[in-house]
Each structure stands twice: as structure tokens, then as C-alpha cells.
Amino acid sequence: MSELIPVDTQNFRIELDGEGIAHLVFQPAGGMPVTDAQGHRALAAVWPVLSNDPRVRAVLVRSEGKAFCTGGELAMVEDMLQSEAARQRVMQEARDIVRGIIDCEKPVISAINGAAVGAGLAVALLADISVAARNAKLIDGHTKLGVAAGDHAVAIWPLLCGMAKAKYYLLLCGAVSGEEAERIGLVSVAVDADNLQEEALQIARRLAQGSRSAIAGTKRSLNHWLRAAWPAFEASLAAEINDFAQADAREGVAAIKEKRAPRFGGSAS
Questions:
Q1: In this structure, what are the phi and psi dihedrals at residue 138, rounded to the nearest 5 degrees?
Q2: pLDDT of residue 265
Q3: Residue 265 parent element (H or E)
Q4: 16 sits in which H/E element
């Protein structure tokens, strides 16, 4: 691995190897990667940098942790409950993450191990090619938290796995294994966990060795399907951010902290 592309966060690092593959690596190694406020900001800002860097031919997103990325740090979520400024900032960053991956001229590959939640799940599934360990767990936990599924799912899940499965998993917050995600079309391919990193790296190498213009043109054209879904994405994101100012979100966070089931809207205990 060669030089680093600087990022202002401890949540992930970016290394450029000798084949032109930029490795975006969630960390810490052996721990549970999350996105804190600084990391979320960095994740929003990094995609134009990677897209415009002539040294980069492909981007491989992977993790050195026990999980791929378990989503927003609780402190960041609690800040959103209290602060309108924080909600507006996170809303703009969420737009930039989704738009940045869609518009990135370089092919993006994700290697999904363990749990992928929140912003981590957004990156995992917005990647052009997603490789999941069969035992990975993909979880969109928004409605369990008491907020709308707004950070990527409305834009891409119906295109990947169809409306019926999208509603089933997004409304119920069910975990999708890597094996099931491949079966329903939510990820490109599922492999044994021991083979995950090598399989994703081989795909990244094939793309890095391909025609830049042909691959970029194909990605750009295909992603017009996602751009067509942008109004739905904006509606879901606005609903999510609005929900963070409501009582259900406060209850959802309290339930997480107290390790119990949430009691929304006066539901029975």
C-alpha cells in the first residue's frame, strides 16, 4: 500500500495502492467502526476528491473492524435530537454522500463484512459493485429509531430488490444476511467471509485495469436511474430530518440506551 489521501477523521482512512485502487478503510481494526460527526462530514466530502484525482482508477470500500460500519455514533444522533443546526448539517452531508457516490467518475466496490448500518449501509449499497460476506448483516434501522428511512434507501432499494422487498425490510427494520441480499438482488454477489476481501480486491483490480472512459460512461449512464429517483430521496431525507425533532426519535434513542424495545406513540408496553 502506498501513500495516504488525507482525510480529517479517525473513522476511516484512504490509501492508494500501486494499481490505482483507493482503499477507503473503515476503522478501528478489530473494533466496531462508526461515523461520528467529524467522520460523517469527511464521508460527505471525500467523493469529489476521489473522482477528480487522476491517480485513482477504482475505489474499494472495506473495513478492518468486526463490522463494516455500524452507522452514526449515538452522540451525533443525540445532537440531532436537540439541535436544528445539527439536523440541517447532517441533511446536507447525507445529500453529499449519496450524490457523491452516484456522480463519482471512478467505479466503487464495497466489501461488506459483519453489520452494515446507517451511513455505512448507504456506502455499501450505493457502490457500483457490492460484495457481501454470506454472514454479513445489512440493517436499515431508521424506523426502529423512530425516523423515516431517509439516507439512501428510498432511492436505491426499490431498484435493487423491488418495491415489495424494500417495503418489507425498510418498514420492519429486518436484518438481511449477505446470502439473502444476493438472492433478492440487494447486493451484487455474496461469498464466504474468508474470501470476501480477496474477491472484492480482484473485482477492483479488473475495473482499475479497464478503460476509464468506457467504465465511467457506463456508470454515468446507468446512474441516471438513481438520479430519476432523486425527488423520492429528497422527500425521504426531509421526513427523516423532521422526525429527529419529534418525540418518537427521542423514545427510539432512549430505548437504545436502555437496551429495551421502543414504545412509540403511546403503544402498549
A1: -100, 120
A2: 86
A3: none
A4: strand 12-16
pLDDT band at residue 151 under the 50/70/90 scheme: confident
Strand residue runs (E) in 53-187: 58-63, 108-112, 115-117, 129-133, 137-139, 176-177
> Model-level pTM?
0.94
Judge contact between 106 and 59, C-beta under 8 A: yes
Secondary structure letter of residue 5 according to DSSP:
P
Q: Which of 37, 161, 173 is closest to 117 using CA atoms?
A: 173
What does the alpha-carbon distance between residue 140 and residue 121 come to, in Å, rounded to a whole number?
7
The rounded mean pLDDT for the chain is: 95
User: Within a 10 A sphere around the Cβ of 31, how many other Cβ atoms?
Assistant: 13
pLDDT interval class at 161 (50, 70, 90)? very high
- The domains of the chain, with CATH numbers, are 3-194 (3.90.226.10)
Alpha-carbon distance values, 97 to 47, 124, 201, 218 (Å): 8, 12, 23, 21
By DSSP bridging, strand 21-26 and strand 58-63 are: parallel
Q: What percent of the chain has pLDDT over 90?
A: 94
